[in-house]
Design a protein that fits this description.
34% of the residues lie in helices and 19% in strands. It is built from eight helices and eight strands; from the N terminus they run βαβαβαβαββαβαβαα. It is globular and about 40 Å long. The mean pLDDT is 93. Catalyzes the reversible epimerization of D-ribulose 5-phosphate to D-xylulose 5-phosphate.
């Protein structure tokens, strides 16, 4: 899985759900990816939305729907999220004892397969799975809530992923999620990330369209 340029992926979680068509129209059709955070109040201490909302978003945008399952037993819902319109489905290493089987299930559904790790999970735990991935998501905050501060020490994992990708001839995309703004996006890009999830810094800005443009300009520099 390749991206030809740095991608800003606004997070649906930060949008105003009472006017979702208007929110997405602000950034679409220029939107490349839309990140969708699914939380179950078990794996993380928050509850968000399920396939019904993904299906609604699919009707409103042509962007790649990047669905991040922060949930226990995600394999039970993979097919439902794919049917709803997910293009990329990312699960957590910590929630998948049979990791390769779940990644295979995602691919067989027709979606791209992603794997994420929490800040406290060491890099060596995920390194063996890199050849099985289309996307690696490095959390730069503790998963569960939007609006948290960027954790710069997570750039060590991004740098390690970037090195291993090149050394092993792999083609997975490196994504970061948490605390991304016009300053931290440059830090993450410098470490080797390709896709940058931005929630509050886009949808909570006075002008989301202008905020998206500013992030794109910042990461391009």
């Amino acid at each position: 899985m390749n991206v030809t340029h740095p991608v800003i992926a606004p997070s649906l979680l930060s949008a105003d759900f009472s006017k979702l068509p208007e929110e997405l129209s602000i950034v679409d059709p220029s939107l490349d990816w839309l990140h969708c955070d699914v939380m179950d109040n078990h794996f993380v201490p928050n509850f968000t939305f399920g396939p019904i909302v993904i299906a609604a978003a699919r009707k409103l945008t042509r962007a790649t729907l990047d669905v991040h399952l922060m949930m226990e037993r995600p394999w039970g819902m993979v097919d439902e999220f794919r049917k709803a319109g997910a293009d990329v489905i990312t699960v957590h290493l910590e929630a998948c004892p049979q990791t390769r089987e779940v990644l295979r299930q995602i691919r067989e559904s027709g979606a791209k397969a992603g794997l994420s790790l929490k800040p406290g999970t060491p890099w060596h735990a995920i390194s063996p799975y890199l050849p099985d991935l289309d996307l690696l998501l490095v959390m730069t905050v503790e998963p569960g809530f939007g609006g948290q501060a960027f954790m710069p020490d997570m750039m060590e994992k991004v740098e390690a992923a970037h090195r291993e990708r090149a050394a092993r001839g792999l083609d997975f995309v490196i994504e970061v999620d948490g605390g991304i703004n016009v300053d931290t996006v440059k830090v993450a890009r410098g470490a080797g990330a390709d896709v940058f999830v931005a929630g509050h810094s886009v949808f909570r800005a006075p002008s989301p369209g202008a905020a998206l443009s500013a992030l794109r300009e910042a990461v391009a520099r």
